[in-house]
Amino acid sequence: MGDPKALDLDAEKAHEKTLQHAEDSLCSAMKDETEDTRHRNFLVRFFIFLGSFMIPGMGMFCEAYFVFAVGNLSALWKIEYKNCWKGIGCPQNLSNSITYTQVCGIIFGQLVLGFFADRIGRKWGSVATAGTMVVGAILIISSAGPTEKALWAMFTAVQFIFGIGVGGEYPVASTSANERAESSAALQKRRGETVVLVFSMQGWGNLVNTAVIIAIMAGYHQYHAPYSNHALEVTWRLSYAIGLIPLIGILLYRFISLRESAVWTKKREALKAMGGSAAKGVQWRKFGLLMYYYWHRNFGTAMSWFVWDFAFYGNKLFQGTFIKIINPTASLIQVLEWTLLNSAVALVGYYFAAFTVDKPWMGRMRMQVMGFAWMFVLFLICAVHYDQLKTPKYIHAFQFLYYFSSFWGQFGPNATTWLLPAELAPTELRSMCHGFSAAVGKAGALVAGVVFGLVDGRTKFWISAFCGLAGVILTLITIPDVTGLDLREGDKRWLAILDGHHHLYHGDAIKPRHLSLIERLLGYGKNYQASDAGSDDGYSAANTFKAADLPPPPIVQKQGSERAVTAVTH
């Protein structure tokens, strides 16, 4: 038998080696991507810049194009299929049935595809979401039946299939954009901008869909009643078919040309170096550690998204009210033109968010608080002065409040609720955490649809206002501001948690300014030590804990591979 002290020394050395190798794997991801953002020709630089977010954001463009189409086309369907949409031979509230089915599919996709994207990788997760959307889109366009009831039964059912792809696109697109910025020296300090610009393609999808419908109707001279059923039929099917073209293109691009995320790949190598892939039950233990150390972050991002979608749904419900007051005889095209204007105003908000979210004077948390605060104020004004705002005398004031709330919604919680869930979670669980928060957010839209159907107009605005106030409180308590934080620091902290030595991590991920109020109260920042090699802005990739500082594992196995597993599972 060997000397027990010698065995302990050997185990300690092996332990140090595996941890150091794991940490080195994370650091090497910085060298996997390079980007030339300084081409001499201004036009070339500009088009490179556009391509940097338009191509990754085409999935969000396509999902928004199809999702918002239901609201844009419902007025046409009520005319073309008037008996069915009045409940004669078809379910009552057919429009709600379509929306709810779609949202249920989205929630399912966010949870399931978000979970699997952490396991199969960002590339194949992206291919799966695009492929599902292509199948769903083809079925939507080809919806048919011997009766109107059969047609709309098929149309409603296939919305669930398309919704699954949409749901998967949320976590996959956000995590991929975060990791692309994390692995690029040119984009690392513009991570928030990179992610929000990808998300801004959602706004373009909404705007382009509205414009396409207007253009097709104008081509058929459908400016006012009476409308041609044939023209309306061609309008909605052709508008969907046009949206299918970029969707097929993005599927082919992802399948042929998309590269796997370097950050995701290196993180898996780091975990394998620690023996995590061989440890029995380690996956469930990771979920337990995630809930223990990150529950407040997941709760904060999920509930912030919930109250945002709840209030946003209330905002959308009132979209046509002021149009009817301004012009009671507004035609289909006129209503769509007002919708187009609102989409354009909202789109401006995306870019205000993108180009300020990384600024030290703004950041994620301030932006979210600011957006929720404006929502509270604007919806509160609408609730208090509801009766006056409904009159023709004050309708333009109501119109301003409506558009202004749309702007602050995008320049605030709509951007940050999509950005933060992926930033606040470790790489290996990033997609799942984002999918969970997004699913809770979509549940807010479902609940709002039920609640707002039971209350009057004034009460809707009261509820939406206090959702804004709840968002402010949630953000101040549970959301950390990770502006300027290298996300690899978060992964180093996660490796220390998996190894059972969270208290020995001293890096920037637990710097007080990168922690939420509740995390500071829980004492997560007490072990922070400023790195001598790190810069003040938090972008240093320097080592933040040394394997040599760690004690040997409490249980030492005889075989080297088993020793590494023990380091993860003890």
Automatic annotation (TrEMBL):
Transmembrane segments annotated in the record for this chain: 46-68, 98-117, 124-144, 150-173, 194-218, 238-256, 338-357, 369-388, 400-420, 432-455, 461-479
- GO MF term (any one): transmembrane transporter activity
Is the Isomerase keyword given for this protein? Answer: no
Q: Which GO terms describe its cellular component?
A: membrane
User: Which stretches does the entry tag as region Disordered?
Assistant: 550-570
Q: Which InterPro entries match?
A: MFS_dom, MFS_sugar_transport-like, MFS_trans_sf, Sugar_transporter_CS
Please state where this protein is localized: Membrane
Bilayer topology reads: Multi-pass membrane protein
What region holds the Major facilitator superfamily (MFS) profile domain?
52-483
Domain of life, per the record? Eukaryota
Spell out the Pfam families in the cross-references.
Sugar_tr
For the keyword Ubl conjugation, the answer is: no
Entry keyword set: Membrane, Transmembrane, Transmembrane helix
Q: Which PANTHER family match?
A: SOLUTE CARRIER FAMILY 22 MEMBER (PTHR24064)
- Specify the protein name: Major facilitator superfamily (MFS) profile domain-containing protein
